[in-house]
């Protein structure tokens, strides 16, 4: 039996100069709480969460994504191994990890999918 | 493993535990528990048909069987205990049969069934203590004692089943220890931590499903 692969979850993306109001609308529409900020080459530059909007954008006008985004996002390159992904999740205390390929954002993987894949692969050895 | 296979294994294990023949135990182990090492239907193969590797494994299994049987020799072959337990249960069965025929227990003693079961249980205590100190098989002992009231309530069959219940518990333990010892000596035992390390070294690219409709596919799966 083939082990079910880890699903790459699609994520919301926005440009660095995108208006924060537009970003908030996107998050509301998609019922999501995080949006990844990419540059023109789709390289991951930062992340904006609903908390960022609440704390950094309320009461201010004309803000852009780059003004409120959190930078230095930890991500894993698709050429790296699963242990590395677990290390990153442990380090950033998160159950998700962004995946990039040559810096370009592909999506996110979840801790649950990762552990489930590893356990299933040793079960089906 | 499907339900049918599970039940088939259970029946085979119980049948093997009823026998005092060590070859039957080995047959059960090779055909049900150790099929990865011997292949299905191994017990039916003749010695001449065996490959060199199979012969080595069979020899190993016999050697392990002998050493484990030696460990539990007193519990399996305690003559005095066996005679006493068989005797009491024989009387219990006789008592039940007589009650059916005459509508009265032997010598009109209504509590004779209780007395015989209690005697048998008491006779087993030293052997049980020895057995537990060697095996730490608390689960087996618990099952053995929990079955006593059930056996007591079953007329005729209950007494007959109770007669060899202690030996059957020991035989099941012996088979389990043979299996574990065999795997330890001949199996490719890899600790789970090691397996996880290997699984974790898989490249992410080869482990992810990436493509259109990945979310929908996951939901549908």
- Total helical segments of chain B: 13
Structural class of the secondary structure composition of chain A? alpha/beta
Shape verdict of chain B: elongated
Question: Overall mean pLDDT score of chain B?
Answer: 80
* Biggest β-sheet strands, sense, barrel of chain A: 3 strands, mixed
Label the overall shape of chain A: elongated
**Proportion of beta-strand residues of chain A:** 15-25%
**From N to C, what is the helix and strand string of chain A?**
EEHEEHHEHEEH
Span of the ends, CA to CA of chain A: 10 Å
Structural class of chain B: mainly alpha
> What is the strand arrangement across the widest sheet of chain A?
2-3-4
Which percent range describes the beta-strand content of chain B?
A: under 5%
Write the element-wise H/E pattern of chain B from the N-terminal end onward. Answer: HHHHHHHHHHHHEH
Helix content of chain A: 25-40%
Q: How many structural domains does the protein architecture of chain A include?
A: 1
Number of strands of chain A: 7
**Largest interface, C-beta within 8 A:** A-B, 28 and 21 residues
Low-confidence parts of chain A: none
Record the SSE blueprint.
The complex is a heterodimer of chains A (125) and B (221).
Chain A: E1 6-7, E2 13-15, H1 20-30, E3 34-38, E4 44-49, H2 50-57, H3 65-68, E5 76-77, H4 82-92, E6 96-101, E7 104-110, H5 111-123
Chain B: H1 3-18, H2 22-33, H3 35-38, H4 52-71, H5 73-77, H6 79-102, H7 112-135, H8 138-153, H9 157-163, H10 165-186, H11 192-200, H12 204-207, E1 208-209, H13 214-220
Helix pairs in contact in B: 1-2, 1-10, 4-10, 6-7, 6-9, 7-8, 8-9
Q: How would you describe this structure to a colleague?
A:
The complex is a heterodimer of chains A (125) and B (221). By secondary structure, chain A is an alpha/beta fold. Chain A has helices at 20-30, 50-57, 65-68, 82-92, 111-123; strands at 6-7, 13-15, 34-38, 44-49, 76-77, 96-101, 104-110. Chain A has a single domain (3-123), classed as CBS-domain (Roll). Chain A is 38% helix and 25% strand. A 3-stranded mixed sheet of chain A has the order 2-3-4. Chain A has a 3-stranded mixed sheet with strand order 5-6-7. By secondary structure, chain B is mainly α. Helices cover 77% and strands 1% of the residues of chain B. Chain B has 13 helices and 1 strand. Classes of the chains: A alpha/beta (125), B mainly alpha (221). The A-B interface holds A 4-10, 76-86, 99, 106-107, 109, 117-119, 121-122, 125 and B 192, 195-205, 207-210, 214-215, 217-218, 221.
